[in-house]
Amino acid sequence: MLRRSAVLWWIATIALGLITASVVGSAVGRATHAADEWGTRRGVWVVRRSVAAGGVFVAADVVRSQRPRGVVPDGALDAATSPVGEATRVDVQRGEVVLTQRLAGRGAHGVAAMVPPRFRAVAIKNDDTMPAVRPGDRVDVLATFDVVDAPAADGTTAVDAPVAAPSFAVASNAEVLTVSSRAITLAVDADAAPRVAFALAKAAVTLVIRGPGSAREIDGDHG
């Protein structure tokens, strides 16, 4: 009985030791991973003072900084590459890490820096028929054409019996870039730009504002 009790005691002791080693090893592994994520640091550029969309970074606008890798956002510009001389596509605020996707490249500035790839900037006259929009809003561009020769139901022409003028979207989900008392500048898809230009010359053009959930809508052929 004594010998059997000793054997059981040693088995229990060894099992407990293995469990303890496993738990300690797992904890050490997690701690090591956390140290890799948060302990090691990466050089990035940080905004020292706010820069408006289209503005070009100067030396006083940014500073190099070492940040724990765990808090560095994806797409952060590496400290080895300076953003000085490049324009920002969007407003950036003090304390933000400079992101590569927000840079427009050297030589761009103003509205040109704010236009995304494969888009074109188009200015539309701002008057009291336009909705109150702000930069960043998403809108559809509607064109209404006059119909002068379309036949009416009784066979007469539109001159004798006016018919409803057709309205349709010539651009969808366009981004408002700038707003002034004279013009609203939009970023429209490159394929839609000629349609918008034609509408501006031949039709009455208005904007309709898209709601927050409309980005998930399926646009028609004029997207």
The 3D shape can be described as elongated
Ends distance: 86 Å
- Helix segment tally: 3
N-to-C series of helices and strands: HEEEEHEEEEHE
Widest sheet: strand ordering:
5-8-7-6-9
Cα-atom Rg, whole angstroms? 31 Å
The structure class reads alpha+beta
How can the largest sheet be summarized? 5 strands, antiparallel
How big a fraction of the residues is strand? 25-35%
Helix fraction bin: 10-25%
Q: Please tally the β strands and state the result.
A: 9
Report the mean per-residue pLDDT as an integer.
Answer: 81
Low-confidence stretches: 219-223
Give an overview in words.
Helices cover about 25% and strands about 25% of the residues. It is built from three helices and nine strands; from the N terminus they run H-E-E-E-E-H-E-E-E-E-H-E. A five-stranded antiparallel beta sheet has the order 5-8-7-6-9. Strand 7 (about 165-180) and strand 8 form a beta hairpin.
Which descriptors apply to this entry?
223 residues, alpha+beta, five-stranded antiparallel beta sheet, 9 strands, elongated, disordered C terminus
Q: Summarize this, please?
A:
The chain has 223 residues and is α+β, with helices and mostly antiparallel strands. Helices cover 23% and strands 27% of the residues.
List the helices and strands and how they pair.
Elements: H1 2-39, E1 41-47, E2 62-68, E3 86-88, E4 103-106, H2 111-114, E5 119-125, E6 138-144, E7 167-179, E8 183-189, H3 193-202, E9 204-209
Antiparallel strand pairs: 1-2, 3-4, 5-8, 6-7, 6-9, 7-8
